[in-house]
Amino acid sequence: MSKIMPPSHPFDFGAYGDDDDTLHEECGVFGVLGVTDAANFVALGLHALQHRGQEAGGIVAHHPELGFNSAHRFGYVRDNFTSQTLMQTLPGPLAIGHVRYSTAGSKGAVIRDVQPFFGEFSVGGAAIAHNGNITNADALRRELIERGSIFQSSSDSECIIHLMARSLQRNIAERMEDALRRVEGAFSVVAMTRTKLIGVRDPLGVRPLVLGKVADGWVLSSETCALDIIGAEFIREIEPGEMVVIDHKGLESRFPFRRQSPRFCIFEHVYFSRPDSIIGGRSVYETRRQIGVELAREAPQDADLVCPVPDSGTPAAIGFAHESGIPYGMGIIRNQYMGRTFIEPTESIRNMGVRLKLNVNRALIRGKRVILVDDSVVRGTTSRKIKEMILDAGAAEVHFRIASPPTAWPCFYGVDTPQRDKLLAATMTEEEMREHLAVDSLKFISLDGLYRAVGEAQGRNAKCPQYCDACFSGEYPVAPSDMIEKGFQLKAAE
């Protein structure tokens, strides 16, 4: 997973500099074994996972006679992996793929950073695709370089390949186990050899990975929505700390790591996963709707209209409206066809900000007391602009309700976040944030309320949290050792 990240959220103008105001999930992985032209299935799966990585993608495939072939491209899956000419270069019944983020226009973004990564070992070739973040990657990289490894990318994921190369184990799966025992942080890995498809989750299960079946073949995917697009049957989630090794004989499951209490990323429920995916047996859409219900109970407001900030705020806004009895309306309309490369980001376009992608439904908004429901507030720049648009359209009042607790801490497990001093909630109280955004009221769902919405009836267990919620609580389940070495200060013990 690359360290270089671009804009992704529908309202994110990170390519334009200071307007970058969202959290970015960095990767999606997908693999298929046992179907004709597996790469075509992988391309469809990556298309369904495009929300997890919009800047680049890659596919590696293996054919028994032609060996390994790969293609790595910048841009959307639909613009690259729908070419028959290209897909014919990726034959075979086994393939894996990856979508990622990189900084738009960055001179540091190079094709060799795009996964899957491939290595030819003494025991055969293998390719890996990684979703997550290795929190001791800097230390591992220094050690490996000192011992003679030559890195080709800036990605932390490449450490896995070099650790596998140095392992003395007898096959690829065992070498991967050996390598991943050295790794700290979060990882959901999809890998392949000449005959096997491999999936692994870290012991905390921070990032998602699911197993499916299609015809006589097997599928591994970051989310269930990507199984749907190829008509695959959802079998189960890969468990935290589990490795599955699949070949023509079937599936073998093993648990090579020390068992720990799972800490799945709670923000997958709030924003990252697609609403039509299933997580832990729960509909993501229904969870987000329930977040709105909890938010309405915790932070009621007398108003005329509940409006989502589309599209991520929509389910929570529906839940808020239903619980509060306040009418729901589409007060903001998103331009579905405005791509990031629509126009060069000149100064005049920068000043337009979110107006390029969002427009206010003036006839609905005029004269109304409006509750805007959004998924999060990161730096506040987008929220201020949306508020100004609503007021310009004639709204009488603007109230923000946020479907996550205040984001006060950066994530080091596979989500690109600003430095802590750039996070609004790290430097301001809720009232100070309200004044900064210049809105009539601002309320966030509580951490307990969020836990109730995801199915934990008693709220958050402070002594043993059920999820990774470090971006809200500052309690990191795995110490971010590289960042601590660079001076990052952990939250003081209470």
Keywords:
2 domains, alpha+beta, 7-stranded antiparallel β-sheet, Glutamine Phosphoribosylpyrophosphate, subunit 1, domain 1, 27% helix, 494 residues, Rossmann fold, globular, 6-stranded antiparallel β-sheet
Concise structural overview:
The protein is an alpha+beta fold.
Describe the structure.
It contains 18 helices and 25 strands. The chain is globular and about 70 Å long. Strands 4-3-5-2-11-10-12 form a 7-stranded antiparallel beta sheet. Helices cover 27% and strands 25% of the residues. Residues 1-19, 103-108 and 340-345 have low confidence and may be disordered. It is an alpha+beta fold and 494 residues long. The protein has 2 domains: 14-265, Aminohydrolase, N-terminal nucleophile (Ntn) domain (Glutamine Phosphoribosylpyrophosphate, subunit 1, domain 1), CATH 3.60.20; 288-457, Rossmann fold (3-Layer(aba) Sandwich).
